[in-house]
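Dear Dr. H.,

I hope your travels went smoothly. While you were away I took the liberty of generating a structure for the chain from your last submission, since the lab meeting agenda had it listed for discussion. I wanted you to have the full record in hand beforehand rather than looking at slides cold. The sequence, exactly as received, is reproduced here:
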Amino acid sequence: MRFDPPLQRATLIRRYKRFLADVETAAGETLTLHCPNTGAMTGCADPGSAAWYSTSANERRKYAHTLEIVGDPDGHLIGINSVRANALVVEALAAGILPGFPADGRLRREVAIPGQTGRLDLLVGDVYVEVKSVTLKLADSGAFPDAVSVRATRHLDTLARLARTGRRAALVFCVQHTGIDAVRSADEIDPDYGRALRRAVADGVNVVAVRCRVTTSEIAPVGVVPVDVPGLACAP
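The corresponding predicted structure, in token form, is as follows:
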């Protein structure tokens, strides 16, 4: 996933109202950007951080610029645009990076959930897939979610129900943080999600995490990292 046109560098002033961020450009101009991330962005929204943004040619957009990458104090780059996670996972599937998926499976997006209302991100062959973007680093691993998320827990319960009824289901964590080498549930932030993750794995949901290379010119899936589910064996 290459950035075309190239990203522009700035300094983050603040992130606010969930979907907005102010930055100062190299020329000293203050810009308000769209911030496509619904999480708390803990560790990747600190004022003064290096930031990179894209610019849309769509003149109908209220905010022409989008926050894409933020640097952390340790020099790691973090892709904060969670909207890109699905496309990155599709790239990983096409490259054969992720285990447990049919190699030549037909791929559909935003698929209806059998037997209930709502949708899941992908259907890969016969595998129902939900994708979550990981940007939070706690100690030596990545953690999800970065804020209490009833919606994310509901998605896990849906995957678990599908697995219990004999369908194939998978959760894919998309790691857009160059400092993360493993992923776990953030039980200290959302214990309900941690419990739901353990139930889902026990019910047969395949849980994997794809690592992305993040640079200011592109973000690309490059491999997998371990998913730590205490008390249960989980891939890669």
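Two observations you may find useful: The longest strand covers residues 8-16. The radius of gyration is 18 Å.

With kind regards,
E. W.
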